[in-house]
Specification:
D-Maltodextrin-Binding Protein, domain 2, homodimer, 12 helices, disordered N terminus, 11 strands, alpha/beta
Chain lengths: ~350, ~350
């Protein structure tokens, strides 16, 4: 069939003709590899870049294919930034706070302790200064980054012993991610950076005393309730947790504009769907965890106040010594101060109403 | 240039070659018209289908164009369902609760009084039964529908007099949307269905005593604070508000699969971005409103309890007499009962922590 003739026929009136063949048969063919920082077993976070890959393939009629590779398959869990930066892979899916030791400003691409909740963060990222500042930071590493998923508010972690005061944190060995580890260190704890697969055995053997990972659904998959029975909230360290899709900058720049727009949009769709999926799977997971013996505990107010004070100190220390960090921190904290009162009025007053109404039904 | 040869050259290694020409030059050309239920002045909600149109055009290199038309331009504000159903336009952007008189089950494509908050609703829509049940309802009208934006939690509305008890609602004429009007009627009020542009003059002339529209940003645009000074919360009638992109089913079925996937994905991107945009613009709007004299008031507990009781009664009345409504209501309320405890634990405990922390800083 002559495609040029086919196109000429398929104006608004000739919709039936559109059924024949692939609409994008003449588009350029691309094969990319995407390295994830997560194992396949954590299916929700692992699936975020798969949503991108599926949409990109569907929309291009299979012309643009992205193959997804679990942590360790092509590069180590925490090696995604370097691999994309060096073009060892064209793209990757990760959490930017894994790399804060290399570039502290990257924590703002994920979250900071006592930071904005998920919707507040997304508003800052998409319509405040967040996205442009973060993409500026990532350009220094030769990477184009897009938000690609969010965990929502996380839990405060699993503890083998109850936490009654700040003294209980002194000397405690805890698996705690990224920048929050610096805060935990400030209050006398001993933070450990351990990938997903090693948390359970470390807790079981007593190498660590406690661990935070994500939330009910993912924590259940790691089996953490079997080796530490107290499950603490709120998750002061991660009230939101943005995932990122990294693309090697040269590879991105070489794409036709249609493919660039497609990737950006697919990451936005994956951001929405991944958050929706976590919100869908966590309610049943927390019921199963509690049903099998996990004990929910709220951190004492004194402990939360101590962690808040330490968080502010650490944020201000980095802000004083790192210009990129300061630029992001100033934007982030001003936005948080501005958006929180509206959420308290509009969203929280509604959530409280529903909580009360359902209880008294 | 021979495009077939061009494609053959543009494999993974030949990225530079991809820069030449449009990647989708051979795709079918489509021109669609989209009728919005909203005026251009409400820029955030009006822009939701524009996000879809922009992405669809960018990704297809201009081959698939959707032109956007404000309420009244092609069809009246509340005529979008009929216009899409009858293929007077190929697609539209609207809120399904406008049509609950025609099909009560459509309220679940928007929200119900005392319903789920935005993230809870989205989880039900995308991963619970929501989407498939709603799309089933819409098929009866010859329409394929996709979520396309969300207002977030709304405010309870503008009142010329203070509300102190249920007695104050008796005989009150209020502009209140869709199904919530039936609840308002149940408690003795007189609900009025009035499009955006007529709310201000109706309040000014005393034709109505009160009006709820959306939230700070949109309400400010309508000028409501100038004609009714008490701004009530929480927005019991709309704790979330999903917007919908309607597509005539035959027009949709005639699209190539690539364009179908593209539309679905673009609507997901627009859902995320429209919610983010509202969350971005509302904080400054509420400050401006309060700064210019609007008085924030919480509904008395007695009034909320009365409205909750009336809401349940109305929902159950429709459920008893309408099978489609019942199927959706059963799924919706079970999901709400299941997801709310997790949100109270994970999200609300975090939001309370931040509210307290920022206050004591």
């Amino acid at each position: 069939m002559d495609r040029r003739k086919f196109v000429a026929n398929s104006t608004v009136g000739g919709a039936a003709a559109l059924m024949a063949g692939s609409a994008f048969a003449q588009s350029p063919e691309i094969r990319w590899r995407c390295a994830s920082s997560y194992p396949k077993s954590l299916d929700t976070v692992f699936n975020a870049p798969q949503i991108v890959a599926d949409y990109v393939a569907k929309v291009t009629g299979g012309k643009f294919q992205i193959s997804l590779h679990a942590a360790g398959e092509l590069v180590p869990a925490f090696g995604v930034l370097d691999a994309v930066s060096n073009a060892n892979v064209e793209c990757g899916h990760t959490a930017s706070f894994f790399y804060w030791g290399k570039d502290p400003s990257l924590v703002f691409d994920y979250t900071v302790p006592f930071g904005m909740n998920t919707r507040q963060y997304m508003a800052w990222y998409q319509y405040g200064e967040g996205r442009s500042l973060i993409q500026g930071s990532m350009r220094d590493h030769g990477i184009v980054s897009f938000a690609c998923g969010n965990f929502g508010a996380q839990m405060g972690g699993w503890f083998r012993k109850e936490i009654k005061s700040m003294a209980d944190l002194k000397g405690m060995k805890m698996r705690i991610g990224g920048f929050s580890g610096a805060v935990f260190s400030k209050v006398g704890g001993v933070p450990q950076s351990i990938p997903a697969g090693e948390i359970y055995p470390s807790l079981e053997r007593g190498v660590i005393d406690s661990a935070e990972w994500v939330g009910p659904y993912d924590d259940e998959k790691l089996g953490l309730s079997k080796v530490a029975k107290y499950y603490y909230y709120p998750g002061w360290q991660e009230g939101s947790g943005q995932l990122s899709f990294y693309i090697n900058q040269q590879k991105f720049e070489a794409l036709p504009p249609e493919y660039k727009a497609l990737l950006e949009m697919a990451c936005q769709a994956a951001t929405l769907l991944t958050l929706n999926k976590y919100d869908h799977v966590n309610p049943a997971a927390i019921r199963r965890l509690v049903g099998s013996g996990a004990q929910l505990k709220a951190f004492p107010k004194e402990v939360l106040a101590g962690l808040y004070k330490a968080s502010k100190e650490v944020l201000e220390e980095y802000s004083a010594k790192n210009e990129k960090f300061k630029r992001l921190y100033d934007s982030y904290r001003q936005y948080q101060a501005s958006i929180t009162p509206w959420f308290t009025l509009g969203e929280m007053s509604y959530d409280r109403l529903i909580e009360d109404s359902l209880r008294t039904k």
